[in-house]
Each structure stands twice: as C-alpha cells, then as structure tokens.
Amino acid sequence: MKEFIEKKDLDNFKSNFEGDRANLLAMNAVTSNGVNKAALNVYRAKDNQNSFSIEVEAGKVCDQKQSGRCWMFAAYNVFRLEIMEKLNLENMELSQNYPLFYDKLEKANYFLENILDTLEEKNGSRVVDFLLTDPIGDGGQWDMFRSITYKYGCLPKELMPETAVSSCTRELNTYLRTKLRGFACQLREDYAGGKDLEKLRQDKEEIMSTIYRMLSIALGQPPERFSWGTRDKDKNFVEVKDITPQEFFREYVGLNLDDMVTVINAPTEDKPYGKTFTVQYLGSVRGGKYPVKYLNLPMEELKRMTIAQLKDNRAVWFGSDVGQFSDRKGGYLTLDALKVEELFATDFPMNKGERLVYGESLMTHAMVITGVELDEKGDPIRWKVENSWGKDSGMEGFYVMSDEWFSEYAYQILLDKKYLTQEEKKQFEAEPILLKPWDPMGSLAR
User: Fold this and answer.
1) Who contacts 235 (Cβ-Cβ below 8 Å, separation ≥6)?
2) Contact, 414 vs 264, CB < 8 A?
3) β partners of residue 294
4) Which of 16, 99, 112, 144 could disulfide-link 140, Cβ–Cβ 3.0 to 4.6 Å?
5) What pLDDT, on the 0 to 100 scale, is given for residue 410?
6) 3-state helix, strand and coil shares in percent for the chain, rounded to the nearest 5
7) What pLDDT is stored for residue 80 in this prediction?
8) CA torsion 418→424→429→433, rounded to 10°?
9) Quick one: average pLDDT of 307-320?
10) Is 256 one of the catalytic residues?
C-alpha cells in the first residue's frame, strides 16, 4: 500500500469485509446496540461466581454520582468500617462533601504555588502547559487523601451532606479552572512586570479568599465542631458530643495512616522493581507530611499482601483502569466480560507494560477489595470489589474481579506496611526516584 489511500485500496477493503458473512452480522448487531452490548459475553458469570471464601463485612454501597471522588469514597469505605466496629453500628457514612471542600481549597493553593515555582518557565513550555491543563479536577491519589485527613479530619455525612454541586461537580470545576488560570496569568504577568515573590504571595491571599468564597457558596461551609447521635445494632442511642473533625478521626477511625503504604505494579523498563517513585508536581497539600510515594513490586507481591490484609479482616483500597473489559451493569471486571476480539475479528496483543508506555492504560478509578476466593493451593481465583457507583451498578454495587483482570489492569494497592517483607520495608524507605509530571503513574483516580 502506498503512503495515501487509493480507490483500489477502498475496493479491496470493501470486498474483504463483504466477503465474510460474520462481518455483516456484527455490523447489524453493533449499529443497533453499540459495541459493548453486542460484545457482551452471556456466559461471563459461569467462571466468575459471586462467592468468596474470605470476605470482609462492608457497609451499604455509596454513590459518588457525577463527580470524580472515587478515591475519597474508597478511602471512606475503609474508614467507616472502623467506626462501625467501635460503635456497634449496622451502617454509617462519612461526609464526602467535607474532604471535597478542603481538597479543592488545598489544590488551588498547590496550583498557585506551582505557578510561583515555575515563573522562570516560558509560556508554552511543557511544564507550564501541564500545570494549566487541569488545575483543580476532582481526582486524587491515596497520599493526597492522607494529607487532607490528617489536617482536617472527617465527620458523619449528616453534618455536611451532599449538595447539588458536590454530586455533580462539572459546573463548579469549570468556573474554578477559569479563575485559577486567570490568576496564573495575573501572577506571571505581574512577575514579568517586576513584582517580587513576596508581593505575589501577598496577592495570593486575596486569590485564595475568592476560591474559599466560591467553595462555600457551592458546597456549604464545613463545621469546625459538632455533636452527633445515632442508634447501634441493638437500638441503643450512641452520642458523640462537642468534637472536632480531627478528634473524631483520631478517636473513632483511629487508623495510624503512618503505617499505610502504597505499592504499585508498573512493569516498565524505566521503573525497576524494588525502587520507590514520586511524581513531580503531584499532590494537593503544600507543607503536608505525605508526598506521593510508591514502591514498585511484582504483581505476585501485591496479591500476597492483599490476601494477608483480607485475612486480617481489613479491606484494601486499590486503583485500576476500570473501563477496560468491564461490564458495569452486570458487575464483572473480567477479561472475558466482553468478546470484543471475536466481534471485530482481531486481537489486542499489548501487555501491561506496553499499554502503560503507549498511553493505552493507566489508573483511572479507586475501589475497595472486600473478599477473595482461593484455590486449594491458596492462590486467588477471583476477588470481591466494592464500588462507589450506587446499588444499581453491578450486583447491588459490588463487582466480581477475575484474578487475570487484577493482574492486567490493577496498578496500586494501599496496605499496612506490616505486610511488607523486611527487604521491602527497606526498599520503601529509600529516597524515591522523581518521575516527570506526565508519567502514567501520576494519573488520578476519579
């Protein structure tokens, strides 16, 4: 074939297509129903049953609605289990609107400080363009949530419930982005005009006051102290009196977040196993105690530690590329959920490392693993996953994830560092290698 498409090429393409009856049947199915419905594997449940020998009790499924807060919902789905156990509760939900407020506020400050750090960069440079791409989106990573939690605590949902905006953040994000890009323009132009860094930081206070006002109008103002009451499983009244969100986290969640580490599986040449990594300009809380940091290990190690934590009756936060070969309605994350290769009569041969390098896959969504089915050797067959898309998605909000899908499309897990080997603990404490801002491991869960 030449460098351009000729009429004879089109004739050959058409002849090849029409010469196979399966193509015509596939065309009718897809044009009428869409790709995924036409490719849906009706036998997907046979080898992916919704039963698990090890299972952590979970609360009622939550719904992030039209927002990119999965990383917050997943973390709170882990946190609330501690509260439910301490207070003997059937169920409870933490306010996801509360960390959203402070995450937006901190991200605005983080963005402005990054702009101040790059004043010598020219407009149009790759770094400046990257910073301006999405100054204040909803997405995040575990270490960002850890910093928000330690600084601001948490509180029950009733004390700062959802608003129309927290449940559908697109409009607010549009106006916040517009303001922040305008502020970035102002700061850079003022610097070019001779203002020094001290003067620019004085201007930042007024800018941040504007962002606070916008957030308060859209999300409501967060409580600084509160009292809260509920009924436990035995119908006894339980009351928490006059407490700050920080005190509530320490007393009723009580997890030592210092003991929780993020382990990734990124099988690419530039990320050797046994090394730690961080990402330039990735974070939210300036001056926070917890920069983003990962330890890269083989997938077998991620599975070993996940099983160990589940056996200790503790759920596992994890990040994956949820849109790959998934049946959202039925609740299956399995390589055979969709028979796309059969539908299009072609294969998709890239491996996990190649998909990362060539931009085909990265972490997009955070959920919680609450169970696993093991074979007679103790190896995983399938996993139970709690999502945050409401009870109408999957099986009352839960998914079955095959072990093969976990290998191919899971990228991060959060676990207690006690499950690391002594060698892995030493590796985690090493100085992290700095990755470029646009590295795929800097992607945000939404």
Assistant:
1) none
2) no
3) 262, 277
4) 144
5) 98
6) 45, 20, 40
7) 98
8) -140
9) 98
10) no
Closest CA to 290 of 246, 256, 248: 256
- The whole-angstrom separation of Cα 333 and Cα 44 is 10
Residue 70 catalytic? Answer: yes
- Hey, what are 183's tokens? 């502020």
Confidence of residue 163 (pLDDT cuts 50, 70, 90): very high
Confirm if 306 and 299 have CB atoms less than 8 A apart. Answer: no
Gyration radius (Cα) of the chain, Å: 24
Report whether pLDDT(147) > 80.
yes
- 23 as an active site residue: the answer is no
CB 441 within 8 A of CB 271: yes
Residues 6+ apart with CB under 8 A from 111: 131, 135, 136, 180, 184
Alpha helices in 60-196 (DSSP H): 70-87, 97-117, 126-133, 142-152, 170-192
- Kindly indicate the confidence band of residue 422, based on its pLDDT and cuts at 50, 70 and 90: very high
pLDDT of residue 123: 96
Query: What's the one-letter identity of residue 374?
Result: L
What is the distance between the alpha carbons of residues 276 and 297, in angstroms, rounded to a whole number?
A: 9
Sign of CA dihedral 377, 420, 299, 390: positive
Active-site annotation holder among 41, 62, 70, 173: 70
Q: What sections of 277-398 are H helices per DSSP?
A: 299-311, 340-344, 352-357
Asked whether the predicted pLDDT for residue 48 surpasses 90, the reply is no
CA separation for the pair 175, 180 (Å, rounded): 9
pTM, entire model? 0.96
- Residue 417 DSSP class: G
Q: Which is nearest to 162 in space by CA: 112, 220, 204?
A: 220
In sequence order, what E strands does 297-379 have?
Answer: 316-320, 326-327, 332-333, 365-374
Q: Over the chain, what is the mean pLDDT? A: 97
> At 288, is the pLDDT very low, low, confident or very high (cuts 50, 70, 90)?
confident
Tokens of residue 324, six digits = 């790959």
Q: Dump pLDDT digits (tens) for 170-217.
A: 999 999 999 999 999 999 999 999 999 999 999 999 999 999 999 999
Q: Would you say 165 and 173 are in contact if contact means Cβ atoms under 8 Å apart?
A: no
**Which residue out of 77, 97, 154, 365 is catalytically annotated?**
365
In the block, tokens 């509760």 appear at: 89
